[in-house]
From TrEMBL:
<keyword id="KW-0808">Transferase</keyword>
<keyword id="KW-0460">Magnesium</keyword>
<keyword id="KW-0496">Mitochondrion</keyword>
<comment type="subunit">
    <text>Component of a multi-subunit COQ enzyme complex, composed of at least COQ3, COQ4, COQ5, COQ6, COQ7 and COQ9.</text>
</comment>
<keyword id="KW-0830">Ubiquinone</keyword>
<comment type="pathway">
    <text>Cofactor biosynthesis; ubiquinone biosynthesis.</text>
</comment>
<dbReference type="Pfam" id="PF13489">
    <property type="entry name" value="Methyltransf_23"/>
</dbReference>
<comment type="similarity">
    <text>Belongs to the class I-like SAM-binding methyltransferase superfamily. UbiG/COQ3 family.</text>
</comment>
<keyword id="KW-0479">Metal-binding</keyword>
<dbReference type="InterPro" id="IPR029063">
    <property type="entry name" value="SAM-dependent_MTases_sf"/>
</dbReference>
<keyword id="KW-0489">Methyltransferase</keyword>
<keyword id="KW-0472">Membrane</keyword>
<keyword id="KW-0949">S-adenosyl-L-methionine</keyword>
<comment type="function">
    <text>O-methyltransferase required for two non-consecutive steps during ubiquinone biosynthesis. Catalyzes the 2 O-methylation of 3,4-dihydroxy-5-(all-trans-polyprenyl)benzoic acid into 4-hydroxy-3-methoxy-5-(all-trans-polyprenyl)benzoic acid. Also catalyzes the last step of ubiquinone biosynthesis by mediating methylation of 3-demethylubiquinone into ubiquinone. Also able to mediate the methylation of 3-demethylubiquinol into ubiquinol.</text>
</comment>
<dbReference type="InterPro" id="IPR010233">
    <property type="entry name" value="UbiG_MeTrfase"/>
</dbReference>
<feature type="binding site">
    <location>
        <position position="174"/>
    </location>
    <ligand>
        <name>S-adenosyl-L-methionine</name>
    </ligand>
</feature>
<feature type="binding site">
    <location>
        <position position="225"/>
    </location>
    <ligand>
        <name>Mg(2+)</name>
    </ligand>
</feature>
Length: 362
């Protein structure tokens, strides 16, 4: 928070609050609070800090009585919920422009997305087998039946469709409308998939408020290296995932080898993917990804290295995670609610007490 003005709460005063948004570092618009209190008559007034939209309404409940100092009132402020502002997004506009040009080529198995088509040979069994090992009731022929899956950055539905065929109810989201149109068109050729899959053109943060703890499984395959804010992205994943739900991620390590093979060879020499598809700086090491996941209430269970053979056009599992890797993590049952940490609160209360002793008047 940037500042809380010096003032005393009087019988029918107005309190102006100026602060920084606690979750995004952006300023929240100054709000006026009408305090309607009679002398000696306490009043409880909810304050909502709002800028744009909030995924979860952040409420500040202030209990005060007339002739109460601001420092004393601060002690009675309680915070509930988490704050995510839509003024900050996980979507990177530069990435949108890249994929906009290829929106009609998702289902060309020999085209720019050929490596993703062949990746299904290992990533689909990876997801299926882990889920089977965690479930006690698995219908034959439909191992993912009854599971609600969110496929983030679904593109044209390359991974969404096989998951639907395994019996899952899948929601595929992508911020590019052209990608969703391609996915919808391809889905329409299979009546079974039409019942199991729905596509939505939106970002992950758009879903958070309406789908809190809705999904059993989240898929973020070849997505993390394209988002604008990895930490916010994974916080949002935690919000929409049920307790004990699973998240599956495939992405690229940030290493010297990944630069040589993933950028120079794959994009500039062999043309496996279009030049400029990836930015090495946005790759993320498994250790870093694990740290962020654990800070958001996840427990990482599996990390496996992946290798693409451009001559055979196939993927295989390897021990090394220095290039591509797949990760599985589980959300903990009980998660601590995020909020202001103790040291900042103590610091601000000390500041308020000092300011309140200087004088009265706003």
């Amino acid at each position: 928070m940037e500042s809380w003005g010096r003032c005393w709460l009087s019988r029918a005063g107005r309190l102006w609050v100026s602060c920084n948004e606690m979750a995004g570092g952006r300023k929240v618009n100054r709000r006026a609070l009408s305090l309607q209190a009679a002398l000696g008559n306490p009043c409880i007034l909810p304050l909502q800090i709002v800028q744009g939209g909030l995924f979860k309404k952040h409420k500040i409940q202030l209990t005060y009585s007339a002739r109460t100092s601001l420092a004393e009132a601060w002690n009675k402020i309680s915070f509930t919920g988490q704050l995510f502002s839509t003024s900050h997004t996980t979507v990177d506009p530069k990435e949108m422009k890249k994929f906009q040009l290829l929106a009609h080529k998702w289902w060309d198995e020999q085209g720019e997305y050929s490596a993703l088509h062949s990746m299904n040979d290992i990533r689909v069994p990876f997801i299926r087998d882990i889920v089977l090992n965690m479930r006690n009731d698995c219908p034959l022929g439909s191992p993912l039946s009854g599971m609600k899956i969110l496929d983030i950055g679904c593109g044209g539905g390359l991974l969404t469709e096989p998951l639907g065929r395994l019996g899952a109810s899948v929601t595929g989201i992508d911020p590019l409308e052209d990608n969703i149109r391609t996915a919808e068109l391809h889905k329409s050729f299979d009546p079974v998939l039409a019942k199991r899959i729905q596509y939505i053109s939106c970002s992950l943060e758009d879903l958070v408020e309406e789908t809190s703890e809705t999904f059993d499984i989240i898929i973020a395959s070849e997505v993390v290296e394209h988002v604008a804010d990895v930490e916010m992205f994974l916080r949002c994943c935690s919000e929409v995932l049920k307790p004990e739900g699973s998240i599956f991620i495939t992405t690229i390590n940030r290493s010297q080898l990944s630069y040589i093979l993933g950028i120079v060879v794959a994009e500039k020499v062999l043309g496996i993917v279009p030049a400029g598809t990836h930015e090495w700086e946005k790759f993320i090491a498994p250790e870093e990804l694990e740290r962020i996941l654990e800070s958001n209430g996840f427990s990482v269970k599996t990390v496996k290295g992946m290798l693409y053979n451009p001559l055979l056009g196939s993927w295989s599992w390897i021990r090394s995670t220095s290039i591509n890797y797949a990760l599985h993590a589980v959300k903990s049952c009980a998660q601590e609610q995020s909020g202001p940490s103790e040291p900042p609160l103590e610091t601000h209360k000390a500041q308020l007490q000092t300011e309140a002793s200087i004088g009265s008047g706003c």
